[in-house]
Amino acid sequence: MELKTDYKNSEVGVIPKDWEVTTFDMIADKNKKWSITGGPFGSNLKVSDYTLNGVQIVQLQNIGDGKFIDDSQIYTSEEKANELLSCNIYPNEIIISKMGDPVARACFIPDKAKRFLMASDGIRLVVNEKEFSKKFIHDYINSIYFRKRAFENSRGSTRLRIGLPELKSLLVIKPKLSEQTAIANALSDADELISSLEKLILKKRNIKQGAIQKLLQPKEGWETKTLKELAKYRRGSFPQPYGLDKWYDDTNGYPFVQVYDVDDNFRLKSETKRRISKEAQDMSVYIEKGSVIITLQGSIGRIAITQYDAYVDRTLLFFESFIVPFDKFFFMLSIFRLFELEKEKAPGGIIKTITKEALSSFKISYPKIEEQAEIATILFDMEAEIKALEAKLEKYRNVKLGMMQNLLTGKIRLV
């Protein structure tokens, strides 16, 4: 294909003629100390240095793909943070992950504190804002173009890792600052749409959670029975010896549902992680579409109505039939509510487990089938609204991806 006259071939592909290519190291502000540096060696920041409050440590799990994730918070003392001053990082600076998934993802540090301390797998980047737009660089790091080069320069078999020297040597595009700013502003508009929708979905989920607690609270006239009095159920299985590759056929096999195939939204993921061979099917437990299943190990208490026929792992329990009339959705939500109340009591350390026998003693309160259906309809409609918003969110994310593909290659110019 003939190259347009205002474009050129470069080390990073076809780009506009007036764009430059430079190394990642040149993005950093050389007038600031430690403007591109990694976190401390593991021996310099140990568990014994953790405190209940003080300076928050930015861990690998806090570094999201374009978003700071604040679910996990650990701290160290002001003294320790001072001792590791070269590893301090400050609000609105960029932090990059040395490890996947994915490797070299980046986010901005939030402004909720004056400073933070990086853990060993973080890299601080202070952008030279005289030549680069900070938001443009943040978006470019998280683009498929930069990530591909980071992936190719990473090491590791089970989990990829990129070192600071390798990161510094990676090539990046350098449009004029005015165009960087225009690109960053356009992508920021998309980010705002996505963020507002994410917040709305979270709000709707919280409202639904409150509705579940209120509507399923036992009322006058409801009956209460143990689970074994209400339904017949059994665990899944897996042919022995467990886990041998010969049982898997991920290309032509049948869906094989395991704990991580059950998501947090009362349904299975659209595709299972593994599929099993015909030989394994003959020795496994089969369930039909529309079955109610519960996870018994690890992330216990996840529950779903299956959207497809499948075989099930022994860490799952499924319901074969109901002894009393039950609306499936009402039943599923009742079980979910019980697990929310009981799962902290489940035995096990990191990997929690609940037995079929323990589950049998769970007590469920329920009204007549007509009222069950009314309650289920209210909650189902709320879930349907959330699903529609999630579909809209996915559409917005795809729009942003398309924008990045056009703007970060110069196919569409904004200045």
Entry keywords:
Adenine-n6-DNA-methyltransferase TaqI, Chain A, domain 2, single chain, 25 strands, 415 residues, elongated
Description:
With 415 residues, the protein is α+β, with helices and mostly antiparallel strands. It has 3 domains: 7-174, Adenine-n6-DNA-methyltransferase TaqI, Chain A, domain 2 (Alpha-Beta Complex); 177-201 and 373-415; 223-366, DNA methylase specificity domains (Adenine-n6-DNA-methyltransferase TaqI, Chain A, domain 2, Alpha-Beta Complex). The chain has 10 helices and 25 strands. The protein has helices at residues 78-83, 134-141, 144-152, 164-169, 177-215, 227-230, 278-281, 328-342, 356-360, 369-407; strands at 7-10, 13-16, 20-23, 36-38, 50-51, 55-58, 74-76, 88-89, 94-97, 106-108, 116-118, 122-125, 171-174, 223-226, 231-235, 254-257, 274-276, 285-287, 292-295, 297-298, 303-305, 310-312, 316-322, 352-353, 363-366. The strands form 8 sheets. The protein has a 5-stranded mixed sheet. The protein is elongated, with a radius of gyration of 26 Å.
